[in-house]
Each structure stands twice: as C-alpha cells, then as structure tokens.
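tool_call: predict_structure(chain=1)
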Amino acid sequence: MSVLDLSPVVPVVVLDDPSSAVPLARALVEGGIGVIELTLRTPTALESIRRIAAEVPEIAVGAGTVTTPAQARDAVEAGSSFLVSPGTTPALLDAMLGTGVSVLPGCSTISEALVLREAGLTELKFFPAEAVGGAPFLSSLGGPLPDLRFCPTGGITLDSAPRYLALPNVACVGGSWLTPASAVQSRDWSSITATARATVSALGQA
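tool_result:
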C-alpha cells in the first residue's frame, strides 16, 4: 500500500527527546493514525526513528525534511520505511530512490512536478502548501497533470484539510496539529490520542 493511502493525515513531528518517541507513536496508533513523519530537524531525530521502528511496528515511521543524500541513507538505516523531502535536487532524488523505500519528493511548482514525473514518480509532496497557492493551486494542476497525486504539507490545519482532501489529486495531507509542541513537552499522550481520534472522525479513514 502507498504511504499516501495509510491515513487522511500524516502527522509531521519534531522531537527533541527520543524518550518521547515510543509513547507518542503509541498515542497516535491508539487514536487511529497508522503513520508518522519524524522530521530530521533535531540531532536526535534518527534515534527517535530507530526506537519507533523497533518498538511500535504497527505504525509506519518515515523521515521528513530529508535534504541531503547522507540523510536519506542514515534515515533508512535507522528504520524509516519512507522518505519525505521539502524539495528535490537530482542528487537527492537519486539517493532517495537508491534506498529502495517509498519516497515523497517535494515540489512547489508545475515545472518541478514535471521533472519528478519524468523521473517516473507520480506521488509527490506539495510544500509549503498554504504559502504557494494552497488548494486552488493543486486543483489547477489536476487538468494538465491528472496522473499525479499529492500530499500537501505546510500551514494546513484541521479546518483547512477538508478543502485539500476534496480534490481528486490529493490523497492525504501533512499536519503538525495532531502533536502540538506543548502536549509533547508535557507528555500529554491522552490529549494527542484524543486529537488523533477527532481528526480521524472529522476527515475519515483512508
């Protein structure tokens, strides 16, 4: 199954403390979410991925904010089952594809989407979604590029997510609202589970 079909929303998470990784992942699973994207924005992100991959097999864990070939390789070695990049260069794309796991390379323009399609990819990340045109932009891509499917990320909320998910070329959205920093820092896992459940109820299951 494609990463895009695992959940209507992919939680995009920044974790500073690896000890929070497993309980956070379990809280999402309990709330009905079966996928998590850990961003490589902290020095301990790979350790968090490693722990989730080893201890919470029922959730698909991936690495986000992959910006270098080395990060792609390190993330997969840590246990990432998919890779997400904010944008794409030829070297980064080659490295991501070379890992053998699922990839969601980032794009924000029609030309970038065409380049990725020429490379054989039809499932892409659209980032930063709200800042570069949002749902109307993605809707306009559906005409000339009907074979592409997107996971828009960046500035999306529970309120705006339905506008994206209503589009035929949007399979899921990425969002940080499921794991607010305040809840993660206070280790309020029940709150995260409740938010996940409310999200699944509001947006439906994939």
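agent: The chain has a mean pLDDT of 96. Proceeding to next step.
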